[in-house]
Amino acid sequence: MGCGRARTLLDSVAEQTYSVEAAAREIIAHCRREIEAAMLQIEAARAILAGSRWLIARWEERRRADAITGGLRLPSYDARRASGFIEIEAEPRRKRRQRTA
Q: Is 86 within 8 Å of 80 (Cβ atoms)?
């Protein structure tokens, strides 16, 4: 009777040990998958950042322009400026009155 009980106890301890090791393996595998997914997200973020440097430069340019204009936006002027040509309108000439002698 004593020997059978000891054997059952040893089998139960062995099963518990195996299940702890199996659980640890599963947790480790899960962590590795999570780390791999995080590394892929970091690489994607780096690619986005590298591709958007022009946008960051544009935002910086706009920030500097806003500092000068106080944030005032003139869409027609901005459109002309973007085209590369800004028309300068001539002031109308004032008519001189001729003096009669």
A: yes
Could you tell me if residue 97 is inside a domain?
no
Tokens 């973020």 belong to 45
AA letter at 89: E
Q: What's the N-to-C CA distance of the chain in angstroms? A: 147
- For residue 88, is it within any domain? no
Residue 40 in any domain: the answer is: yes
Q: Count up the domains in the chain and report the number.
A: 1
d(CA 100, CA 13): 126
Domain assignment of residue 37, yes or no:
yes
- Beta-carbon contacts of 87 under 8 Å, excluding residues fewer than 6 positions away, are 80
Q: What is the mean pLDDT, run by run of 10 residues, along the chain of 101 residues?
A: 60 69 92 96 92 86 78 69 68 70 59
CA distances from residue 14 to 5, 23, 71 in whole angstroms, order as listed: 14, 14, 73
* pTM attached to this predicted model: 0.41
